[in-house]
Amino acid sequence: MRENTEIVEDKKEETDNQSKVRQFLALMPCILLSLCYGTNSAFVSLLTPQLREDCSEFPITEDQESWIVSLDNLFTPVVCILSGPIQHMIGPRSSIQLACLPYIAAWIITIFASDYKLIYIARLLVGISHALSTTTIYSAEILTNEQRGPFEIAIASFRAVGSTTVFAFGLLFRWTTISQIMLGVPVLALLLTFLIPESPVYLISKQKEEKAERSMRRLYGNEFDTEQKTKKIKKNLETISVRQGGKKLNYIKNINQHPEVYKPFLIIMVLGIAQMCSGASVLRGYVIKIFDSIFATNNIQDSSEYAGLENSTLTDADDECIKQNQVQTWAYISGIIIGFFRFAGSVFLATKLKAHKRRSMYKVSIISSILGLLLFSLFSFLKDHNSENVYGWLSLAAACFIVTTVQLGVQNLPFLYSGELFPADIRVICKSSTRAFTTLMLLGILKLFPLFVDSMTLAGTFLLYGCILTVLCPILYFIVPETKGVELEKMHRFFRKATVNESQRPNLDELEEGAKARHDMNANTTKDAHDNLAYESNSEDGYNTFITVQ
Question: Quick one: which of 9, 47, 232, 290 is 20 to 30 A from 15 by CA?
């Protein structure tokens, strides 16, 4: 009897492992798009310093430099809002294919760029792909409940891998060669999309049940009960369709009567301000420029050691120009080190988020971020007034501390809350709107950063960021709710209360009490709500909805 049980368990484990592999392979285009996001975000950080060199391929001004760094955020808000209807019309898989095309076009334009105007066009195209790739619902719709969390974190972590890779290439090549190499990533992602199955939820919403079942067998194996899953998805889609009838327009017309909409929106806006002032965004966009200036007077390397010389087309007559103004090798190494710590922070968050409360993680994150900003400000100030190399290294250590600690909450919690706090039937609209406002703030912070540095120095700019976070810290303490273990369907009850204080924050036991009574559940059997949620998609509006499995 025991042997039979062991055989059954071994077979089930083997089937589960095969299902994991199938799902992972289906996610390869999403992983590559995340890599593209990281490479494109980091690329401008090395592109602009190289173009500001005395003997660059073409010159750019400081104003043009700031536009190159920030311009990819200009179209992103509009595309984010349109992404839901786009996915509904063409499907999640086709939206991934669509996201690859602007990336490909952007790299091609960058390769042949002869002036800053072509770089502007390339960055606008990058912003379109950023919006489409970050709002895709493909991964959420094909992953099982057990694999959704770990795989989503894995996908996001490849952004850090992409940025680290670009900085490593910066040690060896000029930006033109890096563009040629990176072109292969979105091309490969596009080719792989023709090998993956379409989302079963999308197919069922379009009355293509037979194709949906074939898709599920490809994703989960031939032993998966596709018929039962199909019925469950159909029922959920019908329930949502009936429940939402005409409700969205009512939200908009009577917004003052819907605190479950405007309160979380305001909370996420404040979280977004903290996110923008954490220093992580400007470090990602200007890391090479920042550490090139920090290490500029350090005698760390011989004057003949310059990054990217082997790919330079400069003549011997221009050699003197190179020696006078070339990006420091240690600036690229700093980018690599910071990218590694950013990746480590993401991995650490993935291991701790399920075991710890989100408010606790956020408090640790914002307090640590403030400390990191103040330390970076101090060390960069000392470096400006002292030629000792130690202050340059301490500035790098402080920057690594910042990018690690912001990953624990300040950087990630706004994105997490935007998918949790809003009512299910307008979640896509609210999430897209908050994403749009966030990208507009990102555009401003990146565009204004050089002006802040010119007017108040690098140390003063980061001191300002630290002061802003310090002011926001007590405000966030009182308004940020604890959502760990709270069912999404019950989240709106908290925001309908008159005030927001410690006693009124969502309490899992209180919120679950009514549900337990109705379903005759034992009080000691309550689990983390995230383990009891089955994900389905409202393809009628292109957004994601969690349906509680009772």
Answer: 232
